[in-house]
Write a structure and sequence with these properties.
heterodimer, A: 256 residues, mainly alpha, elongated, B: mainly alpha, two-stranded antiparallel ribbon, 16 helices
Chain lengths: 256, 450
């Protein structure tokens, strides 16, 4: 279908294209409305995914298979996935509150939105009603991808490079903002970490559990180090440290 | 019709000319291929892993246990379908279907063979092809993530959510490496259509080495070896297979994104995983292993690349790649998450970029022939290899004895038990030894009783 679409003259609308359009156009609209109307943020994102997918197919229908696929891969596949990633991190129960902070804002937004859509729609329709599209065959003469590549790397190469520079600046800026600066001497390599771990005054292992080397399993009983000394690192700081009395340490008669 | 008269390599103009019933047959064939590959793939994986772990694997249902997966599938269909209370019902329902649809759709642009004649129609063995077919494959794999991510999110519990989060980060990261490794294929083949890439791998250039004419290999797995390796690694990451199966790491996340799934929905997730594995093997075959073209010794036979035979070579290559997937699973332990991410962004990506730079530099030198380019790449690469092989390693320091190590510790170090500590034998062991009968051994080969 795509091959024919690419070769198709721009003036006439083939049957397949019309059918696909009339199926997908309502879906795209439903997706757009659903995105605004959905209360759950993840549902909103999913409605937007639907609209973006429909847009991708529209591009393919309009004899631009490359831009259509890139729309699906980049916008639907990567960018919306990042959106979802953030939304999922926020949590699934974060629904928007339904209390209107501005009175009548919703009604006004609907009326203004409908009016704007009507204005743009009728304007575009009247402007393009008697226009016949030309130049598609010339643009796609060597193939769609080759045509885009030729324009991108000859006529618009400066704009292209500028865009990539802008994106790299944004990425580096985000990293700089999120980066915690650590000086070179603050970073410890593996041997240094190990030496510091076994240096005098530092306990190398995990904190001993209370009662491990003691005769009681009470959290107030400090553990014993291998040489027999008591360690206060095993007990919570707020508890008073005490030795068990002889009565407490004696056998309770429950052991066999 | 003689084979030489037929154009074996389909071009883009050959597509979109089939009658509707032929299209239907092709679609049904591709779909059935996906399902059948899953049925046999699960069996194949279990048998191969069983062989590697010195146990039989499934061998009860059907000959060689071939019908085990079918039995498992039937059992799954009759199990109770549990819907968790906290689940988001619609999304929970649709998530597995998204995965399956995306995995199967990718099969539509995979070329299974050259031009053949079906009921008098001269048609390529491929559902369809578009100028941007490889991008369609990428789009399918990037949309397939939605199934996993949404399944994890909609389940409404912690482990699936963690699995879904991992999956989204993982797939975005490895898709970058994957897309970049395909760039080298695009540059060499000059096209993005899968049939065009297969055709481009058919014509290797002739090399003259020491006065002998040698056909240079046309497969991109050899010409673009770094791209091939990176692509295959990214493929394993993209299909969530071991050692990159972090979204369903059972030692950490129970079953990851499919923890809450049961019955047919779980079966759909399993289906999509195996279809994705087979699809990715088919794509790797198409992009790097010459597609349906016969490997070298078979090409001596004239008719190897015409008619229906190429389908056999294609399936052979796909099965070999699926075996590699299984082999990886049987061999490698799962990576830790940060290691996995570091590997993707700090190893695969830079190597890929440098390789693309080298490749485009070589391609832009037009006045060199293939031999000159080979020398220009081969000699520095060889020197680098030899240098790394014979690079003198640092002499290891003499290791101090344990007593020296203890003595060198500063005052106030962590207390140690004495070095000559005698551990008394456990009283339990002596009792067991004392109560046992003396074993009757070493009395001759004929009276060996154990």
């Amino acid at each position: 279908m795509t091959t024919q679409t690419v070769l198709a003259a721009a003036g006439s609308v083939p049957g397949g294209e019309a059918v696909t359009f009339w199926i997908l156009a309502p879906l795209a609209l439903i997706g757009a409305i659903g995105m605004v109307a959905a209360r759950n943020a993840v549902h909103s994102a999913l409605w937007l995914v639907l609209t973006m997918l429909c847009l991708g197919v529209f591009y393919v229908l309009q004899a631009g298979p490359f831009i259509g696929m890139v729309q699906i891969i980049v916008y639907t596949g990567a960018i919306m996935m990042l959106f979802l990633f953030v939304l999922m991190l926020v949590g699934r129960d974060s629904t928007d509150s339904l209390i209107e902070t501005l009175r009548g804002q919703r009604v006004a937004a609907i009326v203004l939105g409908l009016g704007f859509a009507g204005l743009v729609g009728s304007g575009v329709y009247h402007a393009l009603e008697k226009t016949t599209a030309v130049g598609l065959e010339q643009a796609n003469a060597e193939g769609n991808v080759q045509g885009i590549a030729r324009l991108l790397f000859t006529k618009y190469v400066f704009a292209f490079e500028l865009t990539s520079a802008l994106l790299i600046t944004a990425a580096v800026g985000a990293m700089v903002l999120a980066h915690v600066e650590r000086r070179k001497q603050d970073k410890m390599d593996q041997p240094a970490t190990m030496r510091a771990r076994f240096a005098p005054g530092n306990y190398p292992g995990p904190k001993p559990g209370p009662g491990v080397f003691a005769t009681s399993s009470s959290v107030a009983t400090p553990a014993r180090l291998p040489d027999g000394r008591l360690t206060d690192r095993s007990t919570p700081a707020i508890l008073p440290q005490r030795e068990l009395t002889a009565e407490e340490t004696s056998l309770k008669g429950t052991d066999k | 019709m003689s084979p030489s008269y037929l154009a074996q390599d389909p071009t883009l103009a050959d597509f979109g000319r089939d009658p509707w019933w032929l299209v239907l047959i092709k679609i049904v064939f591709a779909f059935a291929f996906g399902l059948l590959a899953t049925l046999l793939g699960v069996w194949f994986e279990r048998r191969v892993v069983g062989y590697m772990q010195v146990r039989p694997g499934p061998n009860q249902v059907g000959p060689f246990g071939l019908l085990q997966t079918l039995a498992d599938g039937l059992k799954m269909a009759f199990k109770e379908d549990i819907l968790p209370k906290a689940a988001d019902k619609v999304v929970y329902f649709f998530a597995p279907t998204i995965s399956v649809i995306c995995a199967v759709t990718a099969l539509s642009v995979v070329p299974f063979g050259p031009m053949v004649s079906i009921f008098g129609h001269h048609t390529p063995l491929q559902v369809t092809d578009v100028p941007v077919a490889v991008l369609l494959l990428l789009a399918c794999s990037s949309m397939g993530v939605y199934g996993i991510v949404l399944g994890g999110w909609a389940s409404g519990s912690t482990y699936p959510l963690l699995g879904g989060l991992r999956s989204s980060a993982q797939m975005i990261s490895y898709e970058v490496a994957m897309g970049l490794s395909i760039v080298a294929v695009f540059m060499t083949a000059g096209t993005m259509s899968t049939s065009g890439i297969v055709a481009a791998q058919g014509s290797g250039t002739q090399l003259t080495i020491f006065g002998q004419q040698l056909p240079a290999p046309g497969w991109y797995a050899i010409l673009l070896l770094p791209s091939f390796i990176i692509f295959f690694i990214a493929t394993v990451g993209e299909t969530n297979r071991a050692p990159f199966d972090l979204p369903e790491a059972e030692s950490e996340l129970v079953a990851g994104f499919m923890t809450e799934y049961s019955s047919l929905k779980f079966a759909l997730f399993m289906l999509s995983e195996y279809v994705a594995m087979v699809t990715m093997s088919a794509v790797t075959t198409t992009l790097f292993l010459g597609g349906w073209r016969a490997p070298w010794p078979i090409t001596i036979w004239e008719g190897a690349n015409s008619g229906w035979w190429p389908m056999l070579w294609f399936f052979g290559k796909v099965i070999a790649l699926v075996f590699v997937f299984v082999w990886l699973r049987g061999t490698l332990p799962r990576l830790r998450y940060d290691q996995f991410m570091r590997f993707g962004w700090k190893v695969l990506l830079p190597i890929n970029l440098v390789w693309i730079l080298v490749l485009s530099g070589l391609r832009s030198i037009e006045d060199w022939d293939t031999r000159g380019k080979l020398i220009a790449v081969g000699i520095p690469a060889g020197i680098l290899l030899i240098a790394t092989l014979f690079w003198p390693s640092r002499r290891p320091q003499p290791k101090p004895t344990p007593q020296e190590q203890v003595d060198s510790r500063p005052y106030g170090s962590f207390p140690l038990p004495p070095m000559d500590l005698q551990v008394p034998p456990s009283p339990r062991i002596t009792r067991v030894v004392a109560e046992r009968e003396p074993a009757n051994i070493a009395t001759g080969s004929d009276s060996r009783e154990v």
